[in-house]
Amino acid sequence: MVTPFHRGFFQNDESLMHPYRDSTVTSAVMYSVGFTVPSLAILLLEGGWVFTVVARNSNYELASVKSKKSLIYFWLWRVLRVCIIFYFGVVVTHLATNIGKYSIGRLRPHFFDVCKPDWSKLNGTGAGSFYRPFPYIEEDICTGQDSALITEARVSFPSGHSSNSVYCMVFLVIYMQRRLLWEGMLLIKPFLQTVFLLLAIYTCLSRVSDYKHHPTDVLAGGLLGLIVAVLVLYSMKEKVFPTEQMLMKDSDSRMLLMEALSGHHVNEVSAQSAL
């Protein structure tokens, strides 16, 4: 089992004296919203984009079963590809966050509350000596019964909630900016983007008010999520936001797209012959 770096502390460190509280935004809620909302957005927006690509190449609606199936296959292929890229970024964010947590081992603001240190075990300390200047304490003097909670109190930097929520929402906002191009949306797109960003910001702020993290932990986590989202989308932009010309260079995408377009073309020729 991997254990975090055992960082010491000062007895009179007031930043570690906050009470333990339950999370306002639990991990289950954060991951559920952070994964579900972008996945649904990718499903819907890729569908709209695929329809636009096919419709741009024909004047008739799809009528044959073969053409409809080809269009669905191409749509699902695009959804799968973008989702793989999105979740690749999730994994990178998670790994980078945990590397920081376990290598730095910063103590959470509620560390004393869950550790319940026995100050009498320290040399030269005793009752009434709490506010005297003491040396840096590295020995284990915790008396708390929940060892898992004590271990968790040693992984404050950076904030996992902040890094993951910011990554998911920034990825979604940038993706919407490039994919949601319908003119009839007016202010709906910026409104939705603002809501998603506010969700991430609220999650970050709740970690401070719940005494789960120090403000710098949250800032570092948010910055990490932002950097990963931008780097993933920039490095994979030809895969996430391909032009029709780029699709023709990709063998798998070209095959599925050509099947959809060929079925569309067959319908067009049949309609013209009937006339």
TrEMBL record:
It is found in: Membrane. InterPro entries: PAP-like, PAP2/HPO, PAP2/HPO_sf. PANTHER family: LIPID PHOSPHATE PHOSPHATASE, PHOSPHOLIPID PHOSPHATASE HOMOLOG 1.2 HOMOLOG. One of its GO terms (biological process) is phospholipid dephosphorylation. The lineage of its organism: Eukaryota, Metazoa, Spiralia, Lophotrochozoa, Mollusca. Belongs to the PA-phosphatase related phosphoesterase family. Keywords: Membrane, Transmembrane, Transmembrane helix. Residues 83-233 form the Phosphatidic acid phosphatase type 2/haloperoxidase domain. It comes from Pomacea canaliculata (Golden apple snail). The keyword Transmembrane helix applies. The chain crosses the membrane at residues 28-52, 72-96, 186-206, 218-236. GO terms for cellular component: plasma membrane. One of its GO terms (molecular function) is phosphatidate phosphatase activity. This is Phosphatidic acid phosphatase type 2/haloperoxidase domain-containing protein. Its main location: membrane. It is a multi-pass membrane protein.
